[in-house]
Each structure stands twice: as C-alpha cells, then as structure tokens.
Write a structure and sequence with these properties.
Pathway: Cofactor biosynthesis; pyridoxine 5'-phosphate biosynthesis; pyridoxine 5'-phosphate from D-erythrose 4-phosphate: step 5/5. Keywords: Cytoplasm, Pyridoxine biosynthesis, Transferase. This is Pyridoxine 5'-phosphate synthase. The chain has 242 residues and is α/β, with parallel strands linked by helices. Bound molecules: 1-deoxy-D-xylulose-5-phosphate and the ligand NCC(=O)COP(=O)(O)O.
C-alpha cells in the first residue's frame, strides 16, 4: 500500500485568514508525523496565499520524515528550492486566479524548459516529481525530461459525479500508473482524495505515495471542535490563566 504525505497547506490558510501566528503549520507537521504521516507536503504558491517562506525554512529543520515542496517551475521557486533543499520537489501548474490546482502540468508542451528545471534541481540532489494528468503524452514527456517521479492528478476521479465516470477515471489512473512505471518513473498521486474515495486509488499496484491535505484538515477541524470549545469554557473560568 502507498505511504501518506500529509499536505498541511490549509492549516496555513486558516492562519493567513487573520495574518496571525496560529495555527502554525510547523506544529501541525509535528502532530501529523506523530500520528503516522510518512511525509509532509506544502505548496509554496507564488501569491503566498497559505504557506509562507518562513514555514518552508522551519519545516526543513523540523520535519523528521520527508519534506515535499510543491511549487511552480519558475526561476524564483527554483532558487528557493536550491537554497532550502527539500527532500523532493513536486512541480505543479499554477494560475493566480484559481481556487486550487486545476489540471496537470503540460510537460509535453515545454520539454526544453522542463528538462532544464528538472536537471537544475536533480543535479543539486533534489529529486523531482511532476504533477500531471494520467495522460500518455504527459507520462512519456515526464520520462523524457528525466524526472524521478510523477504525481498523477486525481481531481477528475475525485470529482466524478456518478459511479460509471468514477470507474472510468480510476481506470485512467491505473493505466497511467502502469505506463509510468514501465517508463522507469516512480508514481505518486493526489488531489481531492477523501476518506471515502481514497481506497481504490491506494489499491492501484505500484502506487508509492498519496498526498492528501484538504480532507484531513477539514476533518481535524470537526473532530477537534468539541475539545476546543470545552477548553474555551475552561479558559473563561480562569483555568488557563497563569
Ligand atoms: C498541487 C496540489 O494538488 C495541491 O498541493 C494543492 O494545490 C494544494 O494547494 P491549493 O489548495 O492551494 O491548490
Ligand atoms: N498534490 C496533492 C496534495 O498535496 C493535496 O491535495 P488536496 O488533498 O488538498 O486536494
């Protein structure tokens, strides 16, 4: 079965709603690791809407499993990665106006640029994963640019409205995984996976790591709310004052 990379971006989303210091994604990473996370994933977006540079720098020092830095393939981000040296980098497409990552990277359409970026990072000892749709041309191009991994975008599978379309998207992922492995790539997957839809993807043969964030942070808010309210009642009674 694949390992679990916990994406903690949306802990930072809550913090950035007030531009304050809580909740701290660095603390969240420690708790995720204590609970069994096999890796920590953060997406340093160009607009810094959630994760900040400070978070990535501190996480580099505190993460005990492995740190996966998701980022756009821009010169600014490459410089940051070369400086911070995460355990691996996942290159993702970014559009500033998007609510979340909408599709996979077009590697086939920018082989020269991607070859350059992948080589720059991997020559510095940072393995590169490419976040792509499970599409034949994109998988072939990912092997061509010599990335070590691909991360198959599971968004279409996760958003399928009925069982037949979900099954069809699952087959696309299975075929993509098989093809990527046959091309010498290691295979991760993620985006939009939930407690209810993860198992069929986890069961795909050869799948190495699943990166999952939004559903875990959403659940954490709900399963933690009762205790948080109880503790505020205690604080009002002075139990938290020194
Ligand atoms: C690349 C990807 O699928 C996730 O990292 C996702 O982008 C999380 O960040 P956002 O929710 O800001 O899109
Ligand atoms: N690359 C996918 C990821 O890190 C988490 O995506 P999501 O579970 O927040 O949709």
């Amino acid at each position: 079965m694949p390992t679990l990379g916990v994406n903690i971006d949306h802990v930072a989303t809550i913090r950035q709603a007030r531009r304050t210091v809580e909740p701290d994604p660095v603390a969240a990473a420690v708790l995720a690791e204590l609970a069994g996370a096999d890796g920590i994933t953060v997406h340093l977006r160009e607009d810094r809407r959630h994760i900040q540079d400070r978070d990535v720098r501190l996480l580099r020092q505190t993460v005990r499993t492995h740190l996966n830095l998701e980022m756009a393939a821009t010169d600014e981000m490459v410089a940051i990665a070369l400086d911070i040296k995460p355990d691996y980098v996942t290159l993702v497409p970014e559009r500033r106006e998007e609510v979340t990552t909408e599709g996979g990277l077009d590697i086939a359409g920018q082989v020269d640029r991607m070859t350059l970026v992948v080589d720059k990072l991997q020559s510095a000892g940072i393995p590169v994963s490419l976040f792509i749709d499970a599409d034949e041309a994109q998988i072939a191009a990912s092997a061509k640019v010599k990335a070590k991994f691909v991360e198959l975008h599971t968004g279409k599978y996760a958003e399928a409205h009925d069982e037949a379309s979900r099954q069809k998207e699952l087959e696309v992922l299975e075929k993509g995984c098989e093809m990527a492995l046959a091309s010498g790539l290691r295979v991760n997957a993620g985006h939009g996976l939930t407690y209810w839809n993860v198992y069929p993807v986890a069961a795909i043969k050869g799948m190495e790591e699943l990166n999952i964030g939004h559903t875990i942070i959403s659940r954490a808010v709900l399963v933690g709310l009762e205790r948080a309210v109880r503790e505020m009642k205690e604080a009002i009674l002075g139990h938290w004052s020194s």
